[in-house]
Design brief:
Blueprint (H helix, E strand, L loop, with lengths): L9 H8 L8 E6 L6 H12 L3 E7 L15 H9 L6 E5 L5 H7 L3 E4 L9 H11 L4 E4 L8 H7 L5 H11 L4 H9 L5 E6 L1 E11 L12 E12 H10 L3 E9 L2 H13 L2 E7 L5 E8 L2 E8 L7 H12 L5 E6 L7 H8 L7 E6 L16 E2 L3 H8 L6 H12 L3 E5 L5 E5 L8 E4 L12 H15 L4 H16 L9 H14 L1
Helix pairs in contact: 8-17, 9-15, 13-14, 15-16, 16-17
């Protein structure tokens, strides 16, 4: 028998084992099994000796509360791991906070817990014991000569399962590498209008100098060279354009040398550029001083005053007069977006077309919840916590609360080096959320990774609003590529295809 055939639904398992009294004795074990370790093997092997049929009940991802970013391994892969064990006859994923419902439905003859759970004051133990006692089942503890902890093992150095988890997600959603590659090739047929704040990122490379004896703790460096990159919403526009899509970009800048640099860059990239120059503003500039690959200092030159009524009307006209497949609001809180302007700009959006928003907080007061009812939002963890005024909740409840309040169709929560967590509308065949580990192999410069994710996720959902898995995968791959290169450069589709093929070769 294929060991994956051991994974059953509650109704399937109820029919297989039948009702009490049975000819064959049934024992059930329940747990998270985030990493299957020797303690689990001893526990399950011993349990099997007490009955003819061993059922392992597995806590679903949504109800794992052991730590902030757990489970480390998603439920589909944990179920497969358990099913591969010879002593295990059946595996069931439990979509409840406790195994009480499964116990009462299946009524196993025995329910086994590890010796480490023998504390009679444990609340979960009491719930489980009361359920077993209600039909005269037997509650037992397996021997505890050696006790292991999945949490301790994971915290000491989690293994790299990023690709395996990706493949598991793809298989469960019937997505192939060829599917992903074909989606990328269709981006060139799309039309996207992006609105947002332009930033010029300036990297100033220096050589450290020996300070010697000085009166103040001053960092002394010697200028070597500098590089300029368009950033903010402008780099999102370049990521989108790099795919071959038809891109319109509306922004506001100061009438200065930096704006001339941006205009030239946008025109050279082939972007339809609607630039509102305001002589009373400066173009946002963010300088980063780098010495020996270390970022010594960051200096921001910004003007966060709201845009004028006249400029706002120009933005409204650019939206009203340009039909697009998708509209992206890239909010850095440098003047374009505030409560008043967001509402007025949203009111101009056509009923057709994907609506996407990314609101970056940093040290400002952007709030992703101001973009309510959008098709896609892509905040990071800090932005999510800021929006909810919640610094304590673990990640999945936090993301779920944001998803509900934002009333969005898809939420991709960016978790930095921990990857992404995506919430979507659940269906009969899929749950409400899934996670992806970060796919970057060698992080050089993480700046702009979120912008790359935003661009590729947007295009994938523009092609198919019901494809959040594809959007999350392609967005994560684009983000990984952005991390693996120095400077804020657009990610081209050829590099995404290459990384897809690199991952494919590992399978």
């Amino acid at each position: 028998m294929d060991y994956q055939d051991k994974i059953k639904t509650l109704e399937e398992l109820k029919e297989i084992i039948g009702s009490r009294p049975r000819d064959k004795k049934v024992i059930m074990c329940h747990g998270t099994f985030d990493l299957v370790h020797p303690g689990h093997i001893r526990h399950l092997t011993y349990a099997k000796t007490k009955a003819d049929i061993l059922i392992v009940s597995l806590t679903g991802d949504a109800f794992v509360t052991k730590a902030d970013y757990r489970p480390f391994i998603p439920e589909d892969l944990r179920a497969v791991n358990l099913a591969a064990l010879q002593c295990v006859d059946y595996v069931i994923v439990d979509y409840s906070p406790t195994p009480e419902e499964n116990i009462m439905t299946l009524k196993p003859d025995y329910f086994a817990k590890g010796y480490e759970y023998s504390d009679q004051t444990n609340i979960k133990n009491q719930i489980e014991r009361e359920a077993v006692d209600s039909y005269n089942g037997e509650f037992i503890y397996t021997p505890g000569d050696i006790i292991y902890s999945s949490s301790e093992i994971i915290n000491s150095g989690p293994p790299n399962l990023a690709i395996e988890k990706l493949i598991t997600l793809m298989k469960s959603n019937d997505i192939t590498f060829d599917n992903l590659e074909s989606v990328i090739h269709m981006f060139k047929d799309l039309k996207v209008h992006i609105l947002g704040d332009t930033i010029v990122d300036v990297y100033i490379y220096c050589n450290p100098q020996s300070s010697g004896m000085t009166k103040t703790p001053t960092i002394s460096t010697m200028f070597d060279h500098q590089k300029q990159y368009v950033g903010g919403a402008a780099i999102v526009a370049k990521h989108l354009k790099a795919t071959g899509a038809d891109i319109t970009f509306s922004t506001v800048m100061g009438d200065d040398d930096l704006s001339k640099f941006v205009i030239n860059d946008m025109c050279h990239s082939g972007i339809n550029f609607h630039c509102n120059l305001d002589r009373d503003r400066i173009t946002t500039e963010k300088q980063t001083f780098i010495a020996n690959d270390y970022r010594l200092l960051k200096v921001d030159k910004v003007d966060n005053r709201p845009i004028s009524i006249r400029t706002l009307e120009k933005f409204r006209e650019s939206i009203t007069g340009n039909e697009a497949d998708a509209y992206v609001f890239s909010d850095f809180r440098h003047g374009i977006f505030n409560r008043d302007t967001i509402r007025k700009l949203i009111d101009c959006l056509p009923t057709q077309g994907l609506r996407v928003a990314d609101s970056q907080v940093a040290s400002r007061w952007g709030n992703i919840l101001e973009f309510k009812g959008f098709d896609l939002i892509t905040p990071n963890e800090r932005e999510a916590r800021f929006a909810l005024a919640d610094q304590d909740s673990v990640i999945r409840p936090l993301a779920l609360e944001l998803y509900k309040l934002a009333q969005c169709k898809t939420l991709i929560l960016k978790l930095g080096n921990k990857g992404t967590l995506t919430y979507r509308a659940p269906s009969d065949s899929s749950g409400s959320f899934f996670s992806l580990d970060a796919l970057a192999e060698n992080v050089i410069d993480p700046v702009g990774a979120g912008d790359a994710l935003l661009a590729y996720s947007t295009l994938a959902l523009t092609l198919d609003k019901n494809a959040p898995v594809t959007a999350s995968i392609l967005g994560s791959i684009a983000a990984a590529i952005a991390c693996e290169t120095d400077g804020n450069n657009p990610v081209n589709p050829e590099s995404v295809v290459k990384k897809l093929n690199d991952i494919r070769s590992c399978v």
